[in-house]
Specification:
Blueprint lengths: L3 E5 L2 E6 L1 H9 L8 E4 L6 E2 L4 H4 L25 E2 L1 H15 L4 H21 L4 E2 L1 H34 L2
Parallel strand pairs: 5-6
Antiparallel strand pairs: 1-2, 1-3, 3-4
Helix pairs in contact: 3-4, 3-5, 4-5
């Protein structure tokens, strides 16, 4: 008898035996896109891709085929996206458009980006947003460098102007 686990709100739930996990499926607590795992599986998978749980009409129709609304586009893994990764990318993008104040949003972009990557790598349930976190990090560091360059340039210009009136 296998011990099953599933992801809910970014948290790992379980272990559940075969009877309990099937009961949760039949009660509608798990969707076809709920990520599940048990020992022996290569990694977390959406419920609809696990034959031993998705067969028998549990998430498929009477013919054994998945309904069209449950079909996943190629390469898409359902799950949650890290809010910190989204915040990092948004801060990075908005900071680029604020030009002179880029450093103000560059710092939160970098902090949120590092926190997001850390949480994504340590999460027991697959969490998306790695690309957004990296984008936020790159833009955040770029904004900090640009702001530091502007400050250095302005300081040199002001000191030269003061020395040579």
């Amino acid at each position: 008898m296998a011990n099953w686990y599933y992801g809910e709100n970014g948290q790992q739930q379980g272990p559940f035996d075969d009877v309990a996990i099937r009961q949760a499926i039949s009660e509608g607590k798990l969707t076809p896109y709920t990520m599940v795992w048990r020992e022996g599986m290569p990694g977390w998978m959406p419920l609809l891709q696990v034959p031993e749980l998705s067969g028998g009409g549990m998430v498929s129709d009477q013919t054994g085929n998945l309904p069209p609304q449950y079909a996943l586009p190629y390469g898409v893994m359902p799950g949650t996206t890290s809010g910190l990764a989204i915040a990092s990318m948004v801060c990075g993008i908005v900071g680029i458009f604020l030009c002179y104040f880029a450093g103000l949003l560059g710092v939160p972009a970098v902090i949120c980006g590092h926190m997001a990557l850390n949480r994504i790598s340590q999460s027991p349930v697959p969490v998306g947003g790695r690309g957004m976190a990296i984008t936020g990090l790159i833009l955040g560091y770029l904004e900090i460098v640009i702001s530091a360059g502007i400050i250095v340039f302005a300081s040199i210009a002001i000191s030269r102007a003061a020395l040579h009136p």
